[in-house]
Amino acid sequence: MTVSLSGRGVGHSFGDLTVLDGLDFEARPGEVLGLVGPSGCGKSTLLELIGGLRQPDRGRIEIDGKEGEDARLERCAWMPQKDCLLPWYTALDNAGLALRNLGRSKGEARAEAGLLFDRFGLAGFEQSRPDQLSGGMRQRVAFLRTLVSRKDVLLLDEPFASLDAITRAELQEWLLPVLDEKDHTVVLVTHDVEEALYLSDAVLALTSRPGRVAASMKAPSTTGFPREQVVTDPGFTERREELLALLRQSSPSIAGGAR
Ligand SMILES: Nc1ncnc2c1ncn2[C@@H]1O[C@H](COP(=O)(O)OP(=O)(O)O)[C@@H](O)[C@H]1O
Ligand SMILES: [Mg+2]
Questions:
Q1: Cα separation, 1 vs 151, whole angstroms
Q2: Mapping DSSP to helix (H, G, I), strand (E, B) and coil, where does residue 215 land?
Q3: DSSP letter string over 117-181?
Q4: What atom in ligand 1 is closest to the CA of residue 38?
């Protein structure tokens, strides 16, 4: 089942430090909402609020029209920026971890997670430990672990930030059709404007802290075309530059830093 996600006037502070202020956002069922903004503007905090790990100080967040923290915890799977794979577990057991946490036996978790190994380009690596896998493969195991929990909402926190440019582009191209199946409503945090526009249906750009909405933009349709062609298309590059300019205006300190 796919669900809607919305926030109205969402704000949060850690003591005297106001991190997020008056955020409105919306994703329809099956949509990918990209979230870009400078480091420290509250992106990870927002994912924690959406996922029910924290309660916002101000405003409301609803998933499928329900506001409770527990309902959000129940419905969201979170993929942290660091892959957080257990070094002593095989790829298969790492991928099945979320299922073990849901009470499945080791055998059931392995069988269920194993079904996706081929699709994720991991066939033959079931028994490999994380240090035997490339960076891109580790991220795919981490993503698989997020996906097998069968939650309605995926919260992806800079999933490709640690990867080199080539692997990153490959994984973006690989992830697009997975997200396009519309089985999940997704919030994708990235500092890369191009990645946000390529993978998302709409992009929300945040100002530097306290994070406020600097711009909200519908992303161009990218399905069915090679990535190279999409990201060099004049319509795409125009939106990328427009979004970058808006980010620069609202966060002067990242003028040279954002891509
Ligand atoms: N648990 C916490 N306690 C106090 N301050 C925090 C906590 N978590 C994050 N912060 C602060 O909130 C701000 C936003 O952090 P974060 O959401 O991680 O930003 P981003 O993900 O956009 O880089 C930062 O200044 C960070 O130091
Ligand atoms: Mg972060």
A1: 9
A2: strand
A3: TTTTT-TT-TT--GGGS-HHHHHHHHHHHHHHT--SEEEEESTTTTS-HHHHHHHHHHHHHHHHT
A4: 22
pLDDT tens-digit series, residues 94-111:
999 989 988 999 999 999
Task: State the amino acid at position 237 in one-letter form.
Answer: T
Q: Which CATH number fits domain 5-85+152-254: 3.40.50.720, 3.40.50.300, 1.10.287.630, 3.60.21.10?
A: 3.40.50.300
Whether 252 shows a pLDDT value over 80: the answer reads no
Cα–Cα distance, 180 to 174 (Å, whole number): 11
**pLDDT band at 253; cut points 50, 70, 90:** low
Ligand 2 geometric centre to CA of 42 (Å): 7
Reduced to 3 states, what is the DSSP secondary structure of residue 203?
Answer: strand
Cα–ligand 2 centroid distance for 15 (angstroms): 19
Q: Tell me the torsion sign for CA atoms 86, 189, 39, 164.
A: positive
